[in-house]
Structure formats: C-alpha cells, structure tokens
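Feature request disguised as a bug: please show the residue count (292) next to Xyloglucan endotransglucosylase/hydrolase in the output. Example input:
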Amino acid sequence: MGSLWTVCLILASLASAALCANPRRPVDVQFGRNYVPTWAFDHIKYFNGGSEIQLHLDKYTGTGFQSKGSYLFGHFSMYIKMVPGDSAGTVTAFYLSSQNAEHDEIDFEFLGNRTGQPYILQTNVFTGGKGDREQRIYLWFDPTKAYHRYSILWNLYQIVFFVDDVPIRVFKNSKDLGVKFPFDQPMKIYNSLWNADDWATRGGLEKTDWSKAPFIAAYKGFHIDGCEASVNAKFCESQGKRWWDQPEFRDLDAAQWQRLKWVRQKFTIYNYCTDRKRYPQLPPECRRDGDI
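Example output, currently without the count:
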C-alpha cells in the first residue's frame, strides 16, 4: 500500500514505523459526531468533552454504541483500551454489520482473560449470512495498559484488519471461486461490551467473576472515512473515486505482507483455514493468500 510503508520500515523500528504507515491519518472527533448509544445509556460514561467514553458492564447489563450512518466501503478505526485485570467471560467488540437477514459482518472481538493470561483477539467475516471464518491471535502488547488503534479497510478487492497499522488479516474478494463478498449492503459500525461467559474464555470454562464488576473498556478516536449510503443502497455515487479504491489499496505491499507473515508465525493460535477437523475440504477463499 505504497512506498511510504517501505521507507518507514527501513528507517524505523516496527513500533515507530506504524506511526507513518498510513499517510491519511485520521482526525479524532467527538463521540457524538458520528455515533449514538445503542442500549443501556446509563452504562456509557463521557470524558474530555465527549472525546473519550467508557463502556461499563455489570451483572445486569452491558452496553454499546453504533454509527449514525451506514457505509458502503471505507476505512474505519477506533482507539480502545481493554478491560483490565480479571476480565474472563467478557467480550469487547468493534465491528461492521449490515441490517438484512443474509447479513454481512466484519468483526473484531476481544475475549477477556483471567488475570495474568493474555487477551485473545478473534476476527470473523460474514458474507451473505455465512460466518464461521474465525481467526484468533495473541497480541504483542498488553491491550489493557494503553490505547491501541484497531482498523478495518474495506473495498471491492479486500478486507484488511489492522492493529496499530500492522495488518493481522486479509480477506480477499473471491467471487470467482464462488464465495460471496460484501459489496452491496451498507453497514453500520458497532461497539459493545457484553457478557459471553458461555464461550468467550476457554470455551466457557472460565465464568465471569461479578465481584470484579463493573468491567470497563475505554474508547476514543471515533474515526469514520466511508461512503455513506442508505440502508438499501447497492452502490455509492463516488464508488471507484475515493482513496481506498485506488490501485495501491487493492493489495498489501511487500512490507505489509512481511508484517502479516510475522503475525501468522508468532501470534496466530487458530485459523479456520487450517482446521481440517472442522473443514475436511479447504474453504474456497482459503486458496487465496489472504486467509491462509
């Protein structure tokens, strides 16, 4: 995705390279500019004039928020600081989802842990109502200590998941292989904190310890750079003209493929593409470089 990334990697370490990875750095805006609470309004706390919020989870309810608009392609990111300490059973989520029955969805899900154990980041992609494309990684940092940026790039050619501008997953458009790809259903952006102790931590073996409540996740940097559309739109008027449609964003560049390879080798703990017990036959999209 451009020579800038290559220059950064030559001149800097991975940590500082991430700062110059994307020439189109997002401008932080207040929560209310693009988002509204979804449920349990009293479990959302506002700070710094609405530039930072906290989601609270207790034994009665979690909470969440969603974008005011729906978007068909674009770049979406959020700075999140995960629930600290004993967060077993909790899920902190950042995802895009369409409104129809055969919905499309692009998921970041952060699975809580017992104190001293690493967080697990699960990603998933639903197309035409079909999901079951989970990948799981450990992060190379403690996501509870500071804010980190989680981003989704979505265009006609690929979906890319980023952590601090490091690509951790690519889902390629494989329509030629008979795999549906999200291209005609606008999506809203959702964020939530909720209890999922029936599956989230060690397959549901570790239950939520409500004596540690409230569980708190913090958010800021409410960035949206997408083509806004009505829920029923099949295309955007500016489709093909925005920066994410340009040739340099239709694939990762060599340096980014190296970073993705690093994540796969060092931090991946589950990939549905290599789960032969679950999928004796390789899912068609896994034939592409993206999800292998």
